[in-house]
């Protein structure tokens, strides 16, 4: 049967072939996590609550909203400046939706008091930069903040449960649902949680034990370059991982919802799920860096850079790792929403 997901998977495959992704997991990854959850909550109270909040917008579309809002430019009177650039954002490129995006960015731009060189607050909700050596997420460690990926997701969940977001975050119910749908995807992209820190010789550095040093920060592997197939310098390792869902075929994408139905819910109270998932993602980040070698630090106009040498099986290994992460991300989004809005007896 040519299911709705199969149709969406085919569209995603065409999108992948026609454009590059610039955001988070990329549209393919975030759409996929949202689409899996759309499928898994069908027939449950959670589906009705999602529709109440989003109207006709499905989770697969709202899952990219928090990347689309990056098109709002605070230096241009908070105008939307990305019209037509990203096909995944087209659904939000109208006056009403742009007004929503503008209001969100205005309330979540400088409230976290960004330091010089830091991104707008709302952009910092998408990631943590915990050192790989930690093995688990712990607030206060180098690379964490009160508005990184973990507290941002927790605050959004709190809003959906009827509470308020913890400062500096300021979220409406709709924004909270969008952030939950998006950050569940980000949390299952390991380099959005774990970061490797390197010294001048390309040796692994521990900022919590050796002292925080900006010159060792790879910024979630954005400062690590990876070679192209011909050996010439390529893009950065973080972008490589963001683009891995693009390597999955339409058939592989279409198979994910059925596989997600087999994912066992995380043990314990739902109140503790985010911490479990964050720590698990750090272990996945360790796998992502396993077998990699790094050259010495190179100073560039954009800051320090390190060239990586990847293991021979890295493409196949990392693509499979991401496929499994998408399955878990979609399943857990559905399970989380059904825990927030459980079916009535």
TrEMBL record:
Gene Ontology BP terms: DNA catabolic process
Top-level lineage group: Bacteria
Segments traversing the membrane: none
UniProt KW keywords: Disulfide bond, Endonuclease, Glycoprotein, Hydrolase, Metal-binding, Nuclease
InterPro entries, per the entry: PLipase_C/P1_nuclease_dom_sf, S1/P1nuclease
Gene3D superfamilies the UniProt entry points to: P1 Nuclease (1.10.575.10)
GO MF entries: endonuclease activity; hydrolase activity, acting on ester bonds; metal ion binding; nucleic acid binding
Family annotation (PROSITE patterns): PROKAR_LIPOPROTEIN (PS51257)
Pfam families listed in its UniProt record: S1-P1_nuclease
PANTHER family per the UniProt record, alphabetical: ENDONUCLEASE 1, ENDONUCLEASE 4
Record-given protein name: Putative signal peptide protein
Lineage: Bacteria, Pseudomonadati, Pseudomonadota, Betaproteobacteria, Burkholderiales
């Amino acid at each position: 049967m040519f299911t709705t997901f199969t149709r969406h998977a085919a569209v995603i495959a065409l999108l992948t072939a026609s454009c590059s992704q610039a955001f988070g997991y990329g549209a393919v990854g975030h759409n996929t996590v949202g689409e899996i959850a759309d499928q898994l909550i069908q027939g449950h109270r959670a589906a009705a609550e999602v529709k109440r909040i989003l109207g006709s917008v499905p989770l697969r579309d709202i899952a990219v909203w928090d990347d689309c809002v990056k098109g709002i430019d605070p230096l241009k009177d908070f105008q939307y400046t990305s019209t037509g650039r990203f096909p995944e954002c087209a659904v939000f490129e109208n006056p009403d939706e742009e007004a929503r995006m503008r209001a969100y960015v205005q309330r979540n731009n400088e409230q976290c008091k960004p330091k010089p060189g830091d991104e707008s607050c709302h952009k910092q909700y998408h990631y943590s930069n915990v050192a790989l050596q930690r093995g688990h997420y712990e607030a206060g460690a180098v690379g964490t903040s009160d508005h990184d990926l973990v507290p941002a997701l927790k605050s959004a969940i709190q809003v959906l449960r009827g509470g308020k977001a913890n400062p500096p975050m300021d979220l409406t119910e709709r924004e909270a649902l969008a952030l939950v749908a998006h950050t569940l995807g980000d949390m299952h992209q390991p380099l959005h949680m774990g970061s490797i820190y390197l010294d001048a010789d390309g040796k692994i550095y521990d900022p919590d034990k050796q002292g925080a040093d900006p010159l060792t920060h790879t910024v979630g592997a954005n400062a690590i370059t990876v070679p192209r197939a011909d050996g010439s310098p390529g893009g950065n390792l973080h972008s490589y991982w963001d683009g891995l869902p693009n390597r999955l075929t339409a058939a592989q994408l279409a198979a994910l919802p059925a596989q997600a139905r087999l994912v066992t819910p995380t043990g314990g109270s739902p109140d503790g799920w985010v911490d479990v998932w964050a720590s698990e993602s750090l272990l996945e980040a360790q796998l992502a860096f396993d077998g990699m070698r790094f050259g010495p630090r190179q100073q560039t106009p954009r800051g320090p850079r390190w060239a990586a040498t990847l293991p021979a099986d890295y493409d196949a290994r990392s693509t499979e790792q991401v496929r499994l992460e998408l399955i878990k991300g979609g399943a857990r989004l559905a399970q989380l929403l059904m825990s927030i809005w459980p079916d009535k007896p």
